[in-house]
Write the structure tokens for this entry.
Amino acid sequence: MAFPSAPFALWSVSLLTVLFTAAVHSNTSFEDDPLQPMTSDETVPVGGTVTLTCRVAESDNSSLQWSNTAQQTLYFGEKRALRDNRIQLHRSTSTELSITISEVQLSDEGEYTCSIFTMPVRTARATVTVLGVPGKPQISGFEHAVKEGEKVTLTCTSTGSKPPATLHWYKGDQLLKGGPQVVETVDGNPTYNVSSELTLEVSASDDNTLITCAVNHPSLTPGDKRSEQALRVLYSPNVVIHPESTLPREGEKFSLRCVGNGNPEPTTYTWDKKDGGLPLQAKPDGAVLHFLMLNKSDNGVYVCHADNGIGSSEGEYTLLVQDPTAMSTTSGVDHAVIGGVVAVIVFILLCLLIVLGRYLIRHKGTYLTHEAKGSDDAPDADTAIINAEGGHSGAEDKKEYFI
């Protein structure tokens, strides 16, 4: 058996010592070793950009180096070593080496190494986690409308997520509880397909309600990817009868209209009268029942049946024929308002006439008094006339008011 020479043995021991020392230094911190490089793990979605940063506390003019998961050198200081245009230098100083990787792919995931070529060589590692971005969810299982009271099962599927995405169901704004999620792996691809089922018993009120499937994943903002589908529910009509007027009067024409709100719209309408058949003057015409001339014998409860093929429903209206002289409540209210307005106007006119009359009477008395002013003190008739026409500038006016 041959033994290695002493120099070779010593060299082997030295190599092991160097490797051991490097391994020890890779786990030290800035406080223990200012030349020990420090890195951090990064997470990035597919198609995004990640920045890898390596720092040391002090510099001894040794160069920093980044290597990829296959231990291929990416950058040695400022020098590019691998021809990949997605990898670019971000910053290079004596204490830092930062690079960026754009348009990240799933194959870029792994452990990257930062080294500083001191003696011994010191290293640090950074794990890059690449998130598979889930595709927009697809809803299936509701290709046709369903009848009220029946159950429908919807399936939501999203592909390409890593880690597996989470699916949520909504009815309008209400969060629903779906079935257990099914996660499937993809052959030759580290991503997952996720699906979830939702079973609903629908009612008429659910018609046109939006059902939403939303994807929750670290690579997405909330509500970023979702799909919506409106429920289509077939239901029996809801029947309401509308009269032509609120005051049917004897001897006049009249009609009742049957309105059936359903999905689909009713196609068949039939009319009858409780406690007897339709009067001779009542003529049905689809959704409308015409009365050619009302008579008090037409009083009673009329029934409309509406059918849309999904089901049939009925509505009722009680007809009470009034006397020809009957006035509607609305007309009575209008006449009362008009009468009140007329009364107010008449009152205002009377007040104006009274005020105007008193004004005229007062001014008439004053005129007569002025005409005779100064005649009492005149010695004769001529002087009295002169005083009445011109008056005296310094005389006191004496006025008398007659009311």
Notes: The radius of gyration is 51 Å. Helices lie at 6-25, 329-371, 381-390. The longest helix spans residues 329-371.
